[in-house]
User: Fold this.
Amino acid sequence: MPCPYHRNLRVNTKWLLFIGLLALIALAACDVAEPPTPTPTRQFTAPTLEPTEPFFANGPPTEAPPDVLTGPGQNDPTAAALPNRDGGALPPLPVGTASADGQGVDITSEDGTLLNGMLLQRTGGEREPGVLLLATDRLSWGNFPARIHEAGYTVLVMELRPEGSVDDIHTILQAMTTGIADPARIAVIGASQGADIALLGCAETQLCTTLVLLSPLDETAARGATPLLSTVPMMAIASQEDVESFSVAETVINGLSGDKLLQPLEQAGRGTAILANRADVADLVLTWLNRTLG
Assistant:
């Protein structure tokens, strides 16, 4: 007869094997793969550079590109400081609103000072002959600039500054030739000190086609400039009782070899006052301009 103990042992052994098999199956099902070994991060052995600021050719994307056609022009300090010689002059810059008397303009001198004037010019068409009027007071010409303009000329009326020089006239003449007038037909009409500066300026620049002098005063300027202007058509007007200016006018005319005219007057005053006291002088000047400027 088998021993009950051995029979139970065989039964328990089977159960133990069965339970062990189940445990192995369970362990196999719950087995989780090991995570991969992390890749080590590279380390820089040298110092890094700061990031470069972004470059925008036409300005930052949040800003509109500058309008080069409506820039500051002569009002810009850098532009105002540029030398005006050898074709570097800037054209007259319109100032304010045009009126029946013309358009106010500024011209930048060589030292950066803005020279004030009045421009009478027709728009469109070919450039007309230019006439520059020089006096210590640009309002002293009365309606004379308008009369010249109506006759078919571009007129620029400039006021001499006390500390000004011949360089100012050089700049003004260069500005006239940049587009507002025909550079081959430029007349300068100067009164008193304006006549003296006109002589010296035209002698230096050689840009003047003809000159009209009302009561010139500087004998030294007349003797120094006349040889350089000997073939330039020129008219000098002075009152005979104004001994100083009449003597200078004679000096100028006597030193010329080209087309010239000395017009003596009686009791006509000096400078621009001649135009107010003698209405026929304006007609005489216009006749001269028409003949010499074509």
The mean pLDDT is 81. The chain is about 35% helix and 20% strand. Residues 217 and 245 are 5 Å apart (CA to CA).
